[in-house]
Amino acid sequence: MQNALTLDRIDIKILNELQNDANLTNVELADRVALSPSPCLTRVKKLEQTGIIEKRVTLLNPKKMGLEINAYIQVTLDKQPRAALENFREAVERLPEVMECNWMIGECDFLLRVIVRDVEELERLIANKLSKIESVASIRSNLVLKQITYKTALPINDSRSLSLRA
What we know:
- Helix content is 33%, strand content 23%.
- By secondary structure, the chain is an alpha+beta fold.
- It has two domains: 4-58, Winged helix-like DNA-binding domain superfamily/Winged helix DNA-binding domain (Arc Repressor Mutant, subunit A, Orthogonal Bundle); 69-143, Alpha-Beta Plaits (2-Layer Sandwich).
- Helix 2 crosses helix 3.
- The radius of gyration is 20 Å and the shape is elongated.
- The N and C termini lie close together (10 Å).
C-alpha cells in the first residue's frame, strides 16, 4: 500500500506563494502564510524532501532575449521499439531549443515546444537536427502567432486539504 501525504491549507498557501515568487525569503513567506519563520521553513523543507517542490527557477522573457519564434512540432517515428523511443528522447534532451517534449497518444508520437530566434533558425533545427534523428518519419510544425496565456503555477486550491500519493 502506498503512503499518502496530506497537504493542509497552509502547505498549499506556501506552494502558491512560492509558485508566484520563488525569491521570497523565509521571513516574507512565513508572513504571507501566517506562520512564524521556523515552522514555515520546516514545511518548505518537507515539501522539498518529498519532491513536491522539485526546484526553483527564474523565468526569462523570451522576446527580450531575442527569441521571437515559439513553435509546436509534431514528430512521428517510423517505428516504436523501446530503443527508438529512448534514442529520440536522448537526442531531444540535448537540444537547448526544445522547451518541452511530450510523448503522445494520437496523431503524433511526440509534441515538442521549441523557442528560437527566427524562422531560419527553426528551419535549421528541423532540417539539421530533428530530421537527422534515427527513426523520425515525419515532422509537422505550427508557429504561435500570439501567446494568449502562459502559466507556470499549478492550479492548486488552498480552500481545503489535499491528499497525495507519496
